[in-house]
């Protein structure tokens, strides 16, 4: 029960980070928001590890996988932050929920895991759910739509590489390396898009990173208490707070097609997670 509470708490916090990112993107370039996310994430993760998990300070053993993982999470963040700067939080998150479906496909081809016919049906159903949201030919499709899907695809590669790392490096060291890698890459790009920030914008960037770091910290704690496959379906609870924040602060409410697509994607994702937990 403790693992469930910690896990759900993390997923309820993350939409606040997304909401702040969307708000900031209205006035500054979204890459500045990505920079704040990673720069202060690196700072907070190092601080938390130093205070609570000092023994975990060590150079990563799986350095190649760490780099691979960090790069894909970085691109996932860039794509998602761009998407929410243009389309609603709910639509972007729904499309990004394709990640467990893509992860299943990747686990078959990359990790050589067994994927039965029922899970392949769930994969196809998930793609149908995405089509309900995008509605090609009936709805205006823009770059942000593809960016949200791209965020989910990149996150799937991140999940696969995280599975590889689970038995190699400590979760806290992985969190630090992720923040540092992203901060380094985005710091090389952001000067070309930088605009002067007000005090309130600085505080929001710091808050955004603090919320994200806390959420990932809670996820790590929950995964030390329960298996990842059993907690995976709880990630869909994120949509609840996501819809509330999107409607309350930005006046965005999912239409019927997004709800239908979301229901199909969530159902397929939950089924895939439950089937994986039985292996």
Tag the structure with descriptive keywords.
0% strand, 279 residues
Your description of this structure?
With 279 residues, the protein is mainly α. It has one domain (2-114, 142-253). 77% of the residues lie in helices and 0% in strands. The chain is built from 12 helices and no strands. The protein has helices spanning 2-25, 30-52, 63-86, 89-96, 99-109, 117-134, 143-165, 171-189, 199-223, 228-231, 238-250, 256-277. Helix 2 runs antiparallel to helix 8 (171-189), helix 3 (63-86) runs antiparallel to helix 7 and helix 5 packs across helix 7 (143-165). The longest helix is centred in the last third of the chain and has 25 residues, at 199-223. The model has no long low-confidence stretch (mean pLDDT 85).
Number of domains: 1
Percent of residues in helices comes to over 70%
Low-confidence stretches: none
As a whole number of angstroms, the C-alpha radius of gyration is 18 Å
Strand content: under 5%
Query: What overall form do the CA principal axes indicate?
Result: globular
Number of strands: 0
Q: Quote the distance from N terminus to C terminus.
A: 22 Å
Mean pLDDT: 85
Secondary-structure element order, N to C: HHHHHHHHHHHH
Main beta-sheet strand count, sense and barrel state: none
Number of helices: 12
Q: Quickly give the structural class.
A: mainly alpha
